[in-house]
Amino acid sequence: MFITDLSIRRPVVSAVFSMILVVFGLFVFWKLPVRELPSGLQPPVVQVQVDYQGASAEIISSEIVEIIEDVIGGAEGIKNIDSTSENGRATIKIEFDTSIDLDAATNDIRDRVSRVSDNLPEDADAPEILKQSAGFTTSMWLSVSSTTWSDLEIGDYTRRYLVDNFSNVKGVGRILVGGLRELSVRIYISPAKLAANDLTVQEVEQALRRENISLPAGSLEATNIDLTINLDKAYKDLFSIKQLPIKKIKNSVIRLENIAEVKYGPVSEKTLFKAQSKDGHPNEKVVGIGIYAKSGASTVELSKKIRERIKVVQKTLPDGIKLGVSFDRA
């Protein structure tokens, strides 16, 4: 009743108070972050990822997933554990109650995984711990395309120069490169030539490990100078790799080029990324850059900052390379 009486007796005062509320509301409105799921509605999720090249899904499950699941199962506030075993990779997602702090949960999982990291296979990569929100998906996908560059060259340029350009944008939590075909040296051994020279694949592998090394060999101390000695037998280019000696027979040496084809190629032939646009070319090679928003970041604000950074980066792109937005969740 007091507010009603005041409004009737002093209409000017009530109008001033109303204007103050309107101005304050407008000010706060423009400061509100825009997100699909506000804080408190999305439970924190921690993801553990381990890469083990060449291992089958069964080996991944028994030698990696089960070991990690056993050690993280006792963490506080766990709501659900979802594990995926596939050829070459193990992915474990741990969902926590909404009352659990994401940073604290991540540190707890990291400590627990580090206890069993020595029990994982020697050839497996170190476990990667990622903190995310439930339904953690890319906020944006950028496409790096060219009709004159190969997919290997585009991937190498993207990894070396573009990833860092977008990683330091405020609000970016993680960068994922889609369709990246990493440059590597591929050796295609001919079974016929191998048999003709009385060789096995194991002997070729041993020769590659034995000859292509770089090791410290101690130091040489003198009165006025100290020298560091290195044993450098690492091969720097395709020609030197092709000349690698595999076996000596009487007065001749069988080299790698005599039994195999050596050339540059992707680490995996199974990786592919496609993007379509109005001005796209059917023969374009494309590599994608997936941008994940940091926990608590505004998707709309992140989209604006990424688009501003794209305009800056486009000025420095080499000839033949195009950079654009393929998908924007904002």
UniProtKB/TrEMBL annotation:
SUPFAM superfamilies per the UniProt record, alphabetical: Multidrug efflux transporter AcrB pore domain, PN1, PN2, PC1 and PC2 subdomains, Multidrug efflux transporter AcrB TolC docking domain, DN and DC subdomains
Keyword field: Membrane, Transmembrane, Transmembrane helix
Keyword Protease found: no
The keyword Transport is assigned to this record: no
GO cellular component: plasma membrane
Positions of transmembrane segments: 12-30
Listed GO MF terms: xenobiotic transmembrane transporter activity
One Pfam family named in its UniProt record: ACR_tran
Stored Gene3D superfamilies: Multidrug efflux transporter AcrB pore domain (3.30.70.1430), Multidrug efflux transporter AcrB pore domain like (3.30.70.1320), Multidrug efflux transporter AcrB TolC docking domain, DN and DC subdomains (3.30.2090.10), Multidrug efflux transporter AcrB transmembrane domain (1.20.1640.10)
Name used for this protein in its record: SSD domain-containing protein
Species whose genome carries this gene: marine metagenome
